[in-house]
Amino acid sequence: MEELKTLVEKYSNLTQPMIDSLITETKNIQRNYSYRKFDVFIDVRNDYSHQAVVVYHKVPQIGKSLYQHKVVGKEALQENEPGVFHALETGLPSLGLLAETQESKLIQQRIYPIKFEETVIGVTIIESDISNNILNSFRGKNTNERYNDVSATIQLFGRLNLAVANQLVDSILIFDQFGDLVLANKTALELYKQLGYIGNIIGLDYDNLSLDGTDFRSTFQQLLAGQVNEKLVDKKEFQYLDHYFTIRKLWNKENQQMIVLIQDITEIKIKEAEIISKSVAIREVNHRVKNNLQSVISLLRIQQRRLESPELKQVLNGSISRIMAIASTYELLAKQVSDDTNLSSALSLLVSHFKQLNDTQNIMVKFQIDPAIVIDSDRIVTISIIVNELLQNVVDHAFSHDQAGEIMLTGIADHNIVTISIADNGRGFSMDQVSKGSLGLTIIRSYVADKLKGKLKINSDSSGTTVAFSFNN
């Protein structure tokens, strides 16, 4: 049970008594005779990603597991396992809901909440196969052969690492070795009906149903050219009338059948065109925001020069620094098309502007950010503000006047969790002595908790201070 304890402590804020309750539940699962034929899991909520994480798995004592690989430690996503989140959120059982596993298999789940006193701390999940449910979504000429054809197709998807749930949403057409359609799912039947085909398409030949302009003979030869048991033709995108599709073709040697997967991407194409148009507009907006913020900074600097009070000048300098942090981010956003921003580039620009604005000639700022980390534009602004506040705190409080010092800014990613830390070798401080009304610390705590949904850790002693914040990316 050590793995369960480690995972729960890593991804959640559950207390030790709550963890003990989960361990007790694992023992109940192991003793429960009715679970001997099923895969049984315990999931808890991931406080970083607000998804769920698998912390325990009991494989069947009778029969084979539905899983080929270890899933403990992997996430369960809301879009794939809605019943898990229904039970976690409401405290009510979820019975008979369909779900997609981490290995892209369709299963049926029975889910029961695990409670500590009145708090839901996790869920118990019992999973079973739903091959017969999949079978009923197909239509074919020969009912007796339908099960074998569907079963072979699903197995082929698995061998080629195709997500079963995704493929079943697509149109699936299965042709025999002579090019006649022997099987189609309901999505395919509906598609051809929308395209104007009248009556039942089962029994029609490939050439009559081809939407991408290929014929059966050339496609058949192309599939066999690889001299392998199964060959997957690369996904091809094409237009038919006012519709856009992607198409993939597979040859199932065992059953001597051609499988055609058609995905309607018309809506996606429309959205892509809208996104391109909007992205151009957004870049222009970002450019104008940056220019306007720089104008505000210029006005504040004029006002700052007219002030005589050093205290007021310092307060105004803090405001200028915060606006500069936002402006530097918009400067980067105005140069890119994608909504995602490289964290290293954003913080490098921020540090450069910060050093220009502040007297840091005696302070060395070291920089070590994983170049692979990218953050969406909304949160990169938030992160820039937080890092700016942390840098400002170090410059203002960590070192005495003219004292040499060092700041280390780091950023790492562990799976989906990003941790950014700022460490200095200054004088340190006691949290008890920090003013509760400190604007900088208030901004940091509020932004980490409310905007990033993350966690903040502060460690300080006479050898320096380290402030780190983590969030799900």
Features:
Beta-Lactamase; 14 helices; alpha+beta; 473 residues; single chain; Heat Shock Protein 90; 42% helix; flat; 6-stranded antiparallel β-sheet; 3 domains
Descriptive notes:
It is an enzyme of class 2 (transferase). One of its GO terms (molecular function) is protein histidine kinase activity. Its EC number is 2.7.13.3. Residues 284-473 form the Histidine kinase domain. The protein has 473 residues and is an alpha+beta fold. The chain has three domains: 2-129, GAF domain (Beta-Lactamase), CATH 3.30.450; 133-264, PAS domain (Beta-Lactamase, 2-Layer Sandwich); 268-472, Heat Shock Protein 90 (2-Layer Sandwich). Helices cover 42% and strands 27% of the residues. The strands form four sheets. It has a six-stranded antiparallel β-sheet, with helices on both faces. Strands 7-9-8-12-11-10 form a six-stranded antiparallel β-sheet. The protein has a five-stranded mixed β-sheet with strand order 14-16-17-19-18, with helices on one face. A hairpin with a 2-residue loop joins strand 16 (405-414) and strand 17 (417-424). Helix 10 runs antiparallel to helix 11 (310-333), helix 11 (310-333) packs antiparallel against helix 13 and helix 13 packs antiparallel against helix 14. The model has no long low-confidence stretch (mean pLDDT 82).
Task: Produce a short descriptive summary.
By secondary structure, this protein is α+β, with helices and mostly antiparallel strands. It contains 14 helices and 19 strands. β10 and β11 (243-252) form a beta hairpin.
